[in-house]
């Protein structure tokens, strides 16, 4: 018994090339993303052999969005930042470029319908979050008043005339008995960022084993490292914990406080 088999369709050169390109595209995308990841890691890597650069990079990473004033310093407290300061530091990430459909700063066409809803509604949306925008723009430490100032600043650039709550003056930290700065308040306002959990090689507050060798160096050495910055085997500490607004006495008081916790 004989019969004929159906002839299989032949693959043309163009079909083969299209299939090959289709298979290569995902591979190229993965390679591209891996290269970007590696370059990003290299760009943010701290070179421990360069103490000055290490301190500078660490300070930029640890510097708080708002600085707390101590001993009569004129720096603004967290909660007292202006709308422009908050927009520049936080909101501009999306509102300067229109990312995630955020209305661009100065775009009256985009802000018009939003302004028409009223200032209170805009502030409520900014505080609680709306659509792709997270609550408080992703900065959980912003107070309601700070969010309101940021909203007013951007909306007014888009044609509104909202009156934002005025920033409050930074209260000075009250001195402890004897006129000394309050080390605990300095610690809570700045040092806790690293020493609270032992971040970046910092000796954790209250850890006697970690503080013992440091205390043995003497207070003068600890003061010098805290004031001028220090790069050691376990990590790098920026000058004054990254808060340049601290007075020398405030820094020393914080050192004394942490030393006391480790004794």
General description of the model:
The protein is 51% helix and 2% strand. The model is unreliable at 61-77 and 171-180 (pLDDT under 50). Strands 1-2 form a two-stranded antiparallel ribbon. It is flat, with a radius of gyration of 28 Å. Among the domains are: 59-73 and 172-261, Cytochrome c-like domain (Cytochrome Bc1 Complex, Chain D, domain 2), CATH 1.10.760; 83-157, Cytochrome c-like domain (Cytochrome Bc1 Complex, Chain D, domain 2). It has 263 residues and is mainly alpha-helical. Strand 1 and strand 2 form a beta hairpin. Helix 7 crosses helix 10.
The total of beta strands comes to 2
Q: Please report the number of helical segments.
A: 10
Classify the beta-strand content into a percent band: under 5%
Helix and strand pattern: HHHHHHHHHEEH
Largest sheet: 2 strands, antiparallel
How is the largest sheet built, in terms of strand order?
1-2
What is the assigned CATH homologous superfamily of the domain at 59-73 and 172-261?
Answer: Cytochrome c-like domain
**What structural class results from the helix and strand content?**
mainly alpha
State the name of the first-level CATH class of the domain at 59-73 and 172-261: Mainly Alpha
Q: Over all CA atoms, what is the radius of gyration?
A: 28 Å
Averaged pLDDT, please? 77
CATH fold-type name of the domain at 59-73 and 172-261: Cytochrome Bc1 Complex, Chain D, domain 2
- The CATH architecture designation of the domain at 59-73 and 172-261 is Orthogonal Bundle
Low-confidence stretches: 61-77, 171-180
Amino- and carboxy-terminal Cα gap: 101 Å
In helices, the fraction of residues equals: 40-55%
What shape does the CA trace take? Answer: flat
């Amino acid at each position: 018994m004989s019969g004929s088999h159906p002839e299989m369709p032949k693959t043309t050169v163009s079909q083969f090339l299209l299939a090959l390109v289709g298979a290569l595209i995902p591979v190229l995308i993965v390679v591209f993303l891996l290269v970007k990841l590696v370059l990003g890691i290299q760009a943010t890597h701290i070179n421990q052999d360069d103490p000055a650069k290490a301190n500078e990079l660490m300070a930029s990473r640890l510097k708080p969005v708002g600085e707390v004033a101590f001993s009569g310093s004129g720096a603004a407290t967290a909660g007292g930042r202006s709308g422009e300061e908050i927009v520049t530091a936080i909101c501009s990430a999306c509102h300067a470029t229109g990312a995630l459909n955020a209305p661009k700063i100065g775009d009256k066409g985009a802000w018009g319908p939003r302004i028409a809803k009223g200032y209170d509604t805009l502030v409520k949306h900014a505080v609680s979050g709306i659509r792709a925008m997270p609550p408080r723009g992703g900065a959980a430490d912003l107070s309601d008043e700070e969010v309101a100032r940021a909203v007013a600043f951007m909306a007014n650039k888009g044609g509104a005339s909202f009156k934002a709550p005025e920033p409050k003056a930074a209260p000075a930290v009250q001195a402890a008995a004897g006129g000394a700065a309050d080390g605990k308040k300095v610690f809570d306002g700045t040092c806790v960022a690293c020493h609270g959990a032992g971040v970046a090689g910092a000796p954790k507050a209250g850890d006697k084993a970690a503080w013992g060798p440091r205390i043995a160096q003497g207070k003068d050495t600890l003061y010098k490292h805290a004031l001028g910055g220090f790069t050691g085997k376990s990590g790098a500490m920026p000058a004054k914990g990254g808060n340049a607004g601290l007075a020398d006495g405030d820094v020393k008081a914080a050192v004394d406080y942490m030393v006391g916790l480790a004794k």
